[in-house]
Amino acid sequence: MADRDVEKSLKRTVRPGINTIEITAARELHARTVNARNPRNERAMQTTTTTTTMAKSSASFFKEPIPRHVCNSANNPPCKHCGRMIIPSPVATYPLEDNPSISINNWTITSRKRPILNSEELEDWETNKLSGLGALPEMIFGNNYISIKNVEKNWSIDFRALDALSMVNLEDSGIRVSYSKDWINSKLKTTAKEVHEDDLFEISSESLNIVKNYDWTYSTEYKGTVINYNDNDVIDFKTDNDLVLPIDKLSKPDQILFFDDMILFEDELADNGISILNVKIRVMNERLLLLSRFFLRVDDVIVRVYDTRIYVEFDENKVIREFKQYESEYNDLMANQKRVLAHSRDPKALLRDSNWVVEHIPLVKRQCEVIQF
Amino acid sequence: MELEKTIRLLKEGKHLSEERVYDICLKSQELLITEGNVTHVDTPVTICGDIHGQLHDLLTLFEKSGGVEKTRYVFLGDFVDRGFYSLESFLLLLCYKIRYPDRITLIRGNHETRQITKVYGFYDEVMRKYGNSNVWRYCCEVFDYLSLGAIINNRIFCVHGGLSPDVSTINEIKAIDRKQEVPHEGAMCDLLWSDPDDVDKWSLSPRGAGFLFGSNEVEEFLHTNGFELIARAHQLVMEGYKEMFDGGLVTVWSAPNYCYRCGNVAAVLKIDDQLERNYTIFDAVQPQDGVGNAIIPTKQPQMDYFL
């Protein structure tokens, strides 16, 4: 019955509304899921989505690399090489538990996705681990992580919410929401009036004090957690700001063997914008790239992007870490991009997109470090 | 009957004509305008927290808690934004309100405003589904008539956000002129926005706007008004509900797997004639049906060659 309705609605594609758009999208999503599980289809999809000019010159790009990776997670659907595909299994959307892993040479990459912290964990973080923070972000994916480990040297760099939030400043950030002044002034006015008229009404301007000071925007310069499992063989990054990431190598459409994308924490700042830390990783046969992005937008006040990139070239056993800080006053961005924003149907949509924002605000600081194993 | 048909269409997530939506909005306004800022409700009643456009989960909520034919409900607001079916969820509640006026009480949440819905999804959803914003405007008109709170058996106070330093008695809420866009400051704003916290007295949020209140404020408010409980929503809770301040305040959250990615469960709170509290916990609808067709969109990582 329901299926017949779906069929009907698909035929009426001209009609606007939920039937056509949502169901077509849902079907496409399902088709992608099914295709992703089937290695043969996956290859077919890759060539069809490539443009024809690309296809000609890309023969060498798509040359079958000599398989050398090992899939460590048994629950994933088949891949053509080792009988398993490593891209996080598409079935694991709920209860959001998945722990895929892949090994190439000395390197093992593992990720895990779990639900947000439960009340018990949250209380532990609030009272013990992060007691300085007045209120924690609304959504903390505290059991999520991505880990890049060198098995031979027993060294790893992990990305975890707790470590990122530990770096949030415990002083007043100086940032206030756009209407803060008006809000406080209006309170002061009513207070004066109320106290005068009614002695029982107790609201002193004291209540307009901030009791707990901390950076409520959760801005964090987190660059990952370096772990040396051997205490007597400590390996750490050395600064070399002249280094650049090999964009040419990273731009090659080498087959992605492992991909994950996760949020570590997110808060919508009581609907005044967004503060979000997102980490994503792609592992190819010869190298990997991880991007950890902190994105902050306080509406009408400020925008910030802090990007950390980790690049590993497996055969060279080299790790590069690049950290970039971008920042702009909200109004400066609006003024600079006035024309673009004016032509957009929904200008706010652009401001919600960190990729668009980062391209249009100035770079404030860049830092590069390297480890050669 | 026309209304029954509309309810059926909404439950299936089907498209309604602009005229039909206008009609529903007008009828609900006529009903809501007769209600006070604070509605009185009798037990037994089921209190529900944020819904946020998760239509399929709202249907589960009704299924698990007895259904509107047999049960009275108080919804604490935040019907729209974030989920993909804000419009259908809100209209379904309005249709139930029209069909069973004494069984549904709708309280305004901080998302039931023009400004917030423009940023957090409802406006976009309407534009996507209708190509214009008329339907969004009709709904916003209804938002302005939603009540600000409810009182159950003169013992339980229901509100979306929390308390306000400008409100010590219920009469002070009744004196508010609620039929307007939620202002940026004042009692009406506080009721929809403020949060309980571990503080000794009223304090300002570090964001520079908005209040935090603690156990002292809750105790005083309960005592002054002869209440035993404040039931509010507004904040995500992994377990679906959270009692604070020796059970003087509870947060109820009714959007499971919030934003389709948080993995939390949802809860509703049933208050029986003895004012006993019974929580019903429920999970999110599975994203796919038995044969693999997607029912709701999932936030799966899209593989991309990011740099």
Plain-language structure description:
The complex is a heterodimer of chains A (373) and B (307). Chain A is α+β, with helices and mostly antiparallel strands and 373 residues long. Chain A folds into 3 domains: 56 residues, no CATH class; 264 residues, no CATH class; 32 residues. Chain A has 12 helices and 14 strands. In chain A, a hairpin with a 4-residue loop joins strand 12 and strand 13. The longest helix of chain A is centred in the first third of the chain and has 20 residues. Chain A is globular and about 70 Å long. Chain A starts with a helix and ends with a strand. With 307 residues, chain B is of the alpha/beta class. Chain B has a domain of 210 residues: Purple Acid Phosphatase, chain A, domain 2. Chain B is 32% helix and 17% strand. Chain B is built from 10 helices and 14 strands. In chain B, strands 1-5-6-10-12-11 form a 6-stranded mixed β-sheet. In chain B, a hairpin with a 3-residue loop joins strand 5 and strand 6. The longest helix of chain B has 15 residues. Chains A and B meet through helix 1, helix 2, helix 7, helix 8 and strand 9 of A and helix 5, helix 6 and strand 8 of B. Chain B: It catalyses: O-phospho-L-seryl-[protein] + H2O = L-seryl-[protein] + phosphate; O-phospho-L-threonyl-[protein] + H2O = L-threonyl-[protein] + phosphate. Chain B: Its cofactor is Mn(2+). Chain B: Keywords: Hydrolase, Manganese, Metal-binding, Protein phosphatase.
